[in-house]
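User: Second chain of the day. Same drill as before.
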Amino acid sequence: MIITDIKKGRKYLSAVYIDGELAVRLDTRVIVENGIRPGLEIDDEKLKEYIDLSNTRRAKEKALWLIANRDHSKKELIDKIAKTADKESARIAAERMEELGLVNDEKFARRYLNELINIKHFSIKGAKYKLIQKGIDKDLIDEILEDMEVDSRKNIKALIEKKYLRNLSDEKGKRRCIAALQRMGYGYSDINSVLKEYIEDEYYNEF
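Assistant: Same format as last time:
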């Protein structure tokens, strides 16, 4: 196979023509760095090597762009990169970010747990579910939680006063409040106990 033409495109991509037909689009910098040029004879194995180099290069750049915007867990980073790259390139890029210290699941988990529990007032159960979704190991989550002081009643109160207090005067509002708190992982008994502090006994007993 002979490379017959290379046409530069946007976003550092170039169209590579082989035997007169468009064969693949490669990262322009990979083309320059590897001396890929019209007239060069290549085989399928070499073409695959160039494609892999291009995919990995672009995956790493996507990883850096994502990390620059906010912290990510390793799994989260792989999943996002894989939306525009192959899974293997996404994995290689995420592992490189991990080697550079730009991705650290423990640091990510500590920051995210603190945000969920102390700022957004999630329950322990709700916060753990969120972290597991992001690929954080369950044992690591439990280890971090052992170092944290979590006051569930205080968090429930904070949520009620911030979002639901003015809606507790009718049954529909109370039910919405309970449902929302349960979605965040709080048990009915804890919610019920805290709500009694905000609703008059005789009115509450009707609920």
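The longest helix spans residues 44-69.

User: Great, on to the next one.
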